[in-house]
Specification:
With 157 residues, this protein is mainly alpha-helical. It has one domain. It contains 6 helices and no strands. α1 runs antiparallel to α2. The model has no long low-confidence stretch (mean pLDDT 86).
Length: 157
């Protein structure tokens, strides 16, 4: 079945809005929305190729120049700042172990996304894409740390 071109942008907008709503609800600590966001995020890759999987090899060994270049992938950084903040809402962030669990879950998601790209053939499965993902996780944890610190500071009366 061939989908008319005019429908594709509308479907992409609806998918984006659906993920945005799920993300906001997950950000408010609703675990069902978080799990749905993760599962649908991973299913996006095989769905986008109509489940006609075309496995591609992954680039596993980045060189230093490409590793630095990958830090310019601002989309990954912004998405993983958002994903870290969303993930942290699922953990008790009063101790460092909460940060560690949230960071580990985000890194695992980054790895799963790369594997999904490699299996589906949609996108590029590259180990170096985990570098901007990690940068987003670090920035997200910094934002959360500063937010929690500001909230806990006693207000002057």
């Amino acid at each position: 079945m061939i989908v008319p071109i005019s429908i594709v942008p509308a479907v992409k907008l609806l998918v984006f809005l659906g993920f945005l709503v799920l993300g906001i609800v997950a950000f408010r600590g609703k675990r069902w929305a978080y799990i749905t966001y993760v599962v649908l995020g991973l299913l996006y890759f095989p769905v986008s190729v109509g489940f006609r999987l075309n496995p591609q090899p992954c680039e596993l060994i980045p060189n230093f120049a490409l590793a630095i270049y990958s830090l310019g992938n601002y989309a990954h950084i912004v998405l993983f700042v958002w994903f870290f903040l969303m993930t942290s809402a699922q953990f008790r962030m009063s101790q460092w172990s909460g940060y560690a669990w949230a960071a580990g879950a985000c890194l695992a998601m980054g790895i799963l996304v790369e594997i999904a790209e490699g299996i589906s053939g949609n996108g590029h499965c590259r180990l170096r894409d985990l570098i901007p993902d990690t940068a987003g996780i670090v920035l997200g944890s910094g934002v959360l740390f500063l937010w929690n610190r500001k909230r806990r500071r006693p207000q002057a009366a």
